[in-house]
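[job 4471] stage=fold_predict status=RUNNING
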Amino acid sequence: MLLSSGLWNIAGAMTWPFYALYVLELGGRHADIGFISALGAVTRIVPTLFGGYLADALGRKKILYSMSFLLAATELLLAFAPDHRWLYLIVVVEALAGGLRDPSFMSIIADSTNPDNRALSMSLFQVVPPLFGLLSPFAMGLLMDSRGVVVAMRYAYMFTFLMATVASFLRYRYIEETLTTGKEVQKDPRVTVKEIFRGFRETFRALPAQLWLFLWIDFIFTFAWAVTEPYFVTYATEVTMLTGAQWGLVAMGATLIRTTVKPMSALASDRYGRIRFILVCMFLWPAGFLLFVNSAGFQALLIARILIAFAGSLGDPAWEALFVDYQPKEHRGRFSAIASVSWSLIWGAGNVVGGLIYQDVSKRMIFDLSAGLLIIGAIIALIKIREPGHRET
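[job 4471] inference complete, writing structure tokens
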């Protein structure tokens, strides 16, 4: 999983930091960035629920590699999109495949960890694949500055298609199934639907209240991030006036911080507990957002983005591990589906809100709004969240 995701990331890291600019260059507005994301989020709901059921019933591997091949094909569609309206169609295909795949993807990673080194294992997955693409954003920025956004992005998406296809083949050939207690999938659609809803009811009853509380707090952070995340690059290039290469350096600097700090914070989290690292992360993020929006040039913006990455590096491994600590193995696919659907909807709504505010009200306001929401979520977590007394295997 580390190798295949790393290969995918070599090319993917050339496109995702600049996706918003691609939408604009293909004729879209800032609000279209959010609307495209929201369409993908809504489309993802049903396939994610089915994906969660299938991950716990049929197993992880088949869904993982088959949907990976389909997702690779969407990269080729992105490479030849004639205008921004095609991106609406492409995101639907991407959401269908990603929705079916994501619960299996998340479950096979969780299944491959154990309670004693779970945060470290999660950090390895967060650190190693991005290392493959460490130089990709800077290289892409140089290409954009010389050839233009559209031409550079088309080349990058074609390259991503090739690397993603290789990664999908590796998953097909070498990944081993991690679920040995699955059951057969019902062939009658009516029985299948009843089975799905029965399984989700069992999951709701089986998971502890602290997990659901943490999930709700996580929703606040998801919305806060969604309001601003697609617009970091547009703010940097439109307001702070960075070049493509400079934004690539910013992305590369953030990746370096994450790869350096995450393993250390993960080891400490496994040894000393999750909550203290999560809380530090929660309170540092709003400071980084405010520093970013008040940056007057490349150096200040780089420092702000590094602070944001540093905060995430402290908290992300513990954050991911805490979710798994609370989940019995036989419910992970369905919980992943519930969480993924919720995250998708909240992320899409946040992107739309952020795009409309950025386009019609104020470019700065979205960062101030996000910082305020992050502070609220951090205070609630400080008061309510406790360390789990038992970590699930």
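[job 4471] summary: The two ends are 20 Å apart (CA to CA).
[job 4471] exit 0
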